[in-house]
UniProtKB/TrEMBL annotation, chain A:
UniProt xrefs under Pfam families: BPD_transp_1
Name of the protein described by the UniProt record: Carbohydrate ABC transporter permease
Ranges that cross the membrane: 20-40, 76-104, 111-129, 149-168, 189-214, 245-267
Lineage: Bacteria, Pseudomonadati, Pseudomonadota, Alphaproteobacteria, Rhodobacterales
Organism per entry: Octadecabacter dasysiphoniae
Subcellular location: Cell membrane
Residue stretches making up the ABC transmembrane type-1 domain: 77-268
Swiss-Prot/TrEMBL keywords: Cell membrane, Membrane, Transmembrane, Transmembrane helix, Transport
Signal peptide: none
UniProtKB/TrEMBL annotation, chain B:
Topological category with respect to the lipid bilayer: Multi-pass membrane protein
Classification via Gene3D superfamilies: MetI-like
Record's signal peptide: none
PANTHER family xref list: ABC TRANSPORTER PERMEASE PROTEIN
Keywords: Cell membrane, Membrane, Transmembrane, Transmembrane helix, Transport
Name this protein carries in UniProt: Sugar ABC transporter permease
Stated family: Belongs to the binding-protein-dependent transport system permease family.
CDD domains, sorted: TM_PBP2 (cd06261)
Amino acid sequence: MFPTPLEKTSRQWQIGYQVLLPIVLIIWLLPLIAVAVFSIKPDADFTNGNYWGMPSSFEMFTNYGKVFFESDMPRYLLNSVFITVPTVIGCIVLSSMTGFALGVYKFRGNLLIFFMFIAGNFVPFQILMVPVRDLTLSMNLYDTKTGLVLFHIAFQTGFCTLFMRNFIRALPFPLIEAARVEGVSEWRIFLFVVLPLMKPALAALSVLIFTFIWNDYFWAIVLTQGPDSQPVTAGITSFNSQYRAAYHLMSAGSIVAALPPVAMFFLMQKHFIAGLTLGAVK
Amino acid sequence: MATATTQRSWYKRNEIAVTPWLFLLPGIVMFALYVIFPIFQSFWISFHQWDGLGEKTWVGLANYERLLGGDRKFETSFWNNLRWLVLYLLAIPMGLFISLFLNQKVFGIRLYKSLFFFPFVISQVVVGLVFSWFYLPGDLGLLNVVIGFFGFEPVNILGRAESATYGIIAAGLWPQTAYCMILYLTGLNSVDPEQVEAARLDGAKGHRMLWHVILPQLKPATFIAFVVTIIGALRSFDFIAVMTNGGPFGSTRVLSFYMFEESLSEFGFRMGYGAAIAVVLFFIMLGFITYFLWSMYQDEKGAR
């Protein structure tokens, strides 16, 4: 193990490390702590210039209540859910199929198609922006959640295919051959042999894609406009102009907007990190 | 009835050859429609003048001539992109450093690792907002409170053209460092303990051990960290849009932001010019993409 395990080091360093750990963490999270403190302060503290002292009263429920009941925030949150969930499902369906095709079969062009998916994944969004916006307009899907979902599914399929194909490659191939000898048809092999083995990959991809799509901002402002279809990342800017300079409300709003992926991460940590660090170990 | 049986038997005979294409079809159609074709369409549009609604007017290379022939906004954006690229790479050594710090077995270390990592899952929009409040001038910004405590003059990072870009990059480095950290933590987990012990017996320790024994084993993690950091640096858009909207005096523009501004500007859509900027950005990226794909292709060949 590197660095040297703590129990083999001097007593001073062992104590020093235990003291250092929380201090470094607080410095690391300082900007976030500031926002959390703001979000429970009353309006009066800001007019009095009491920014960093003790809050004169704890207004957590008032502030967060305003976010949930007196703004468009719930609508934006709901839009985000209706954009994110169908995208996750669509990506999983498409990429488990493409990953299966590229991982199991040997045919001409296999590697070429695989690398096309990877390459498309690295492309800067901006080169897609004008044509995709145009395509969405021409399908009458501009400023709709469907238009955004379709694009997200298509684009994320690149990354998901890379992920699924590599996962399927690592599965024991004799299993598939045995099923073929038994005369099981190919699509049944996919459904009943390969898919059940892919559960960890499906879980990892779901949480990853959920986070990516929930946090998307660029496509949200390119393909949607108003509170009818904009997700929360875009909605937070209009929320902030509604409460300009009301830092306690803007802070509470930002925390609400950021929370779902954070909750998802803490609940599904193992899958999330397994997905994110795929390929970091050989 | 007869045709149905012949069709079915044809499918049965060719099942292994046909199935992969059936499975690939929906994915390829979507990907081609939304990703592959648009790349070529953008090239085509960049040779036109177009407001996004009416007819396109062919202008040949005029957009590129204007862009590369002394467009001040383009020059600022280009140099800022280089700053992003170089400084964003600091996330890799910083992530390595934190991962070495956290790679211990003490009580509660798993929670510490999660708390160090979770800024990465917060949307860049919120990270941008959080940092723009952190940087606020006067007593409202915590940064100025902290440096004031140590006796330094207050700073207005995002308000001054000289420092604004660096302030935004620092905000971007926060989640990116967390990402690199988690890659290295995973990598460190699989470092071969026998090699480390052997090197220790040979008297290697500290930075020599790190450089000659540990880092070579972390190579896959470093490669991925490098890929995601380069891509992240060139994609930077959210932070700039949220924190400064390109200002002050246009000093924080990067190519991706400038492209968006031109294409959907308030003064009329200049899609052709925007597409030309996107093409330039694409070519900058292409160098890296080719290198990444080449490395991955070598791996694939090795795996066979």
